[in-house]
Amino acid sequence: xxxxVLVVSTVETREQIIKAGGSQPWVLSLRNAGQxxxxxxxxxxxxTNAPExxxxxxxxxxxxxxxxxxxxxxxxxxxxISEYALLESQRAVWTSRTSPLCYVADLADLQINQAxxxxxxxxxxxxxxxxxxxxxDREAGPLTLEAAKEALAxxxxxxxxxxxxxxxx
Length: 169
Fold this sequence. Notes:
Number of helices: 4
Radius of gyration: 18 Å
Low-confidence stretches: 127-140
Helix content: 10-25%
Shape: elongated
Distance between the termini: 34 Å
Number of strands: 7
């Protein structure tokens, strides 16, 4: 059975998630997370002064991208959302797990009724990729394979020699 929902236990506030256009910084499987249509944020017990109880789902987002996070180590990702719905229920959907994220098959598995969600557009976020030395899109010029390898190596914390790029036409 495929899993279409990524559930995270986070200290981030609603406002932080909405402003960032997603939740971060997660160490996750790109293969598994890339199949998810929804992100469900639940309250972590590590959050101080949070209005939600531990484990309560407080935000559902429609996943639009998973990108390396600009704020932390290169192996962590931000799960971007295009829309979000705030949840007011204090019902805990997060059960005790050792990992701060898990995957479930459907929103209904968390007793979240998709038809009742009031979707709001998430603020747009800049996903423009700029490579080293480019201060603007106009100055960037065409992207070379070497520049792409260097940028990818820096993003993922590896040597450019370990980056392979395949172009199929």
